[in-house]
């Protein structure tokens, strides 16, 4: 293989992540000609409705998968947190890169953190997971929808539409915007989306040579953690329709997982945690999901 075409979304963050993967592949495989193929997806184009209303996270992948199926691209680069728990049949994730910052960040031009917000302050986020955790801490806040790419969201904050917004630290850092983070919202107090901060590479599952090439970028410790988080989400039938948060980390010989399911309406939430050996992340995710359901998570999950 001497040429590799990477399908990517066109947002500045998506382009940064794909360029990052391209650079890592060029460094590891000198002589490999790596090229980006920027494509527009429905998830990027439809900004006036919530993601849940137009069909969920898969909308960010579909056009890239069509390009791979048609032979116009060899692989695609995604934020793993935007990848549905069940991949489309015929596709695989040969590489999950070493995780960057997992945390959410509190971003405001006026206030130093959630506790410093005045009563009734307007906070912008369309994420049910972020809404549920904000409500749990501060039932008085006005939560306002905010979609669009990272730069668009920051521009709306700067225009005065919101007192604060919540964004992933990893995205801000990748775009050189880390000075916008006024406070970190760290695990386990505040939990991120399953797999937040991890970049994944997707390709067709019928190309072993390609799979092997891409797998050179896989980070085993990250894969163990995000598999536990995604297994928990999968067992809860999680999607962007439900406020599910999870964070797993390695602690010596043990893999630890902390999960949360909550209500974006009233701030009620249940939490559960557990631990296993490194190799048992799937079972750990399923077990923590069961604990969440025993604690009443079903009340916050659809149907
Ligand atoms: N939902 C959009 C999205 N998908 C991935 C990231 C951040 C990067 C990452 O998690 O790796 C973001 C932006 C955000 O949530 O602020």
UniProtKB/TrEMBL annotation:
Residue positions, PTM S-(dipyrrolylmethanemethyl)cysteine: 240
Record-linked SUPFAM superfamilies: Periplasmic binding protein-like II, Porphobilinogen deaminase (hydroxymethylbilane synthase), C-terminal domain
InterPro entries xref list: HemC, Porphobilin_deaminase_cofac_BS, Porphobilin_deaminase_N, Porphobilinogen_deaminase_C, Porphobilinogen_deaminase_C_sf
GO molecular function, one term: hydroxymethylbilane synthase activity
Pathway: Porphyrin-containing compound metabolism; protoporphyrin-IX biosynthesis; coproporphyrinogen-III from 5-aminolevulinate: step 2/4
EC code(s) of this entry: 2.5.1.61
Cofactor dependence: dipyrromethane
Source species, domain of life: Bacteria
UniProt cross-references to Pfam families, sorted A to Z: Porphobil_deam (PF01379), Porphobil_deamC (PF03900)
Cofactor mode of binding and number, as noted: Binds 1 dipyrromethane group covalently.
Porphobilinogen deaminase C-terminal domain ranges (all copies): 224-293
Keyword Cell inner membrane among record annotations: no
Catalytic activity: 4 porphobilinogen + H2O = hydroxymethylbilane + 4 NH4(+)
Gene3D superfamilies: Periplasmic binding protein-like II, Porphobilinogen deaminase, C-terminal domain
Keywords associated with the record: Porphyrin biosynthesis, Transferase
Aminoacyl-tRNA synthetase among keywords: no
Porphobilinogen deaminase N-terminal domain: residues covered: 4-207
Additional facts recorded: The porphobilinogen subunits are added to the dipyrromethane group.
Subunit structure: Monomer.
The family this protein is said to belong to: Belongs to the HMBS family.
Free-text function comment from the UniProt entry: Tetrapolymerization of the monopyrrole PBG into the hydroxymethylbilane pre-uroporphyrinogen in several discrete steps.
Protein name: Porphobilinogen deaminase
Source organism: Luteimonas terrae
Gene symbol of the encoding locus: hemC
